[in-house]
Amino acid sequence: MKKIINTLKNIWSIDELRNRIIFTLTLLLIYRVGCHVVIPGINPNDLNNNAGQSGLLGLFNMFAGGAFNKASIFALGIMPYISASIAMQLAQIAIPQLQKLSKEDSGRKKINLYTRYLTVGVTLFQAIGYITYLRSQNGAAIMNDNFMWMVSTVIVLTTGTLFVMWLGEKITDKGIGNGTSLIISAGIIARLPHALVQEFEAKTQAAGGGLLIFLIEIALMVIIIMAIILLIQGVRRIPLNYARRIVGNASATNMTGARDFIPIKVNGAGVMPIIFAQAMLFIPSTIIGFSNSETAQGFVKHLTNPGSLWYNIIYAILVIAFTYLYTALIFNPNQMAEDLKRNNGFVPGIKPGTDTADYIGAIMDRITLPGAIFLALIGILPGIAGQLKITSGFASFYGGTSMLIMVGVILDTLQQIESQLLMRHYDGLMESGRITGRQSVPASI
């Protein structure tokens, strides 16, 4: 306890770090307040709060911090920006001109500008879809449904998304942590107190199992969080050597070399495979929803029920497949080997060039399999928790997208705070070692 108090004092005593934390918390507070501001022309008392709780809409609602169901001005949240960012990231792999731009400072600024333009387009498209959703699920809440209301709502939703994007960029520039990730995490964490209270009330009822069962559930959630931390922090370090060079005068005989390593993450794809798998499971149910076939409708029930055996099997297979796919898209062994060769770096015992690329690729394939299996297990845990009579809100924190994002962002933010402390010769946040929430490739690569 004394260590925690001293650490907090050290954090507060650093003016820059204190100002960054206050700035971040202020912008997050603004975002959370905006999530409760309803779109003009909608009566919040007539909203159907039970709609959009599952499937892809439930995923949108989670990313928007509950603003999706509340018909807030931030209903679309940061999702259009994330979609545009992913599209631009994939475009850089497919289009050589964009890939070349991404290696230059001025080029990266252009790509960021293109991403903002694409965000506007995606937001306009999603805003129209959201209006259609409001009309189908909350038609009674719309006080004056006409063309002008639709136009004004599209403008409000687009402006809200761009404002949230601006908040995220400002947090990244002048605050602490990654702004976009913190905004998503703020919405997820805001759901946790209500989920805890709901689960406590359910367990303290006559047939709920009592306080002991509730405490066991909390202990299991802590164990799952520890396992997720291991998944996020797990890396395979490939040793590197750099050719020796002369230091000082040409006549000097002192030679120096450098040793480094490439940290290959066990879960290099992050949370994206789970998001893609959930989206893919939603597509068949949407298509089959237009069919009157009883067999097709029965199949849909399996795909929309997280407790179904077929749902969990298909979901796990999709997560593993998308883990390999996304890792292959963002991880380029050939480019890494080329950069190493250009900077006079090499893996001990491996020839530079093609052999190095094959060696790095083989290691990546080997460690991706256990990472993908573990990620699939984390993804299906909320469905298993729901089958064990845990309330749906609390079960979502037993793994899945919510917990992976929340744990990863917290580790990343704490790592940045610790870096600020160590830069000013203070102790870190932990006595046993440094927090390694983020693993970065050496600058030379």
Structural account:
Helices cover 66% and strands 6% of the residues. By secondary structure, the chain is mainly alpha-helical. The two termini are 41 Å apart. 32% of the residues are buried. The chain folds into 2 domains: 1-176, SecY subunit domain (Preprotein translocase SecY subunit, Orthogonal Bundle), CATH 1.10.3370; 191-244 and 259-445, SecY subunit domain (Preprotein translocase SecY subunit), CATH 1.10.3370. Mean pLDDT is 80; it is low at 250-256 and 437-445. The protein has a 3-stranded antiparallel beta sheet. The longest helix is centred in the last third of the chain and has 34 residues, at 354-387. It is built from 16 helices and 3 strands.
Briefly say what this structure is.
By secondary structure, the chain is mainly α.
pLDDT under 50 segments (min length 5)? 250-256, 437-445
| CATH class designation of the largest domain | Mainly Alpha
**H and E order:** HHHHHHHHHEEHHHHEHHH
Determine the CATH superfamily of the largest domain: SecY subunit domain
| Alpha-carbon distance between the two ends | 41 Å
What's the domain count? Answer: 2
Could you say what the CATH topology of the largest domain is called? Preprotein translocase SecY subunit
Work out the helicity level: 55-70%
CATH-derived architecture of the largest domain: Orthogonal Bundle
Q: Rg from C-alpha positions? A: 24 Å
**Number of contiguous helices:** 16
pLDDT average, as an integer?
A: 80
Structural class: mainly alpha
Morphology call: globular
Count the beta strands.
Answer: 3
Strand coverage percent: 5-15%
Looking at how many chains there are and whether they match, the oligomeric state comes to single chain
Identify the strand order in the major beta sheet.
2-1-3
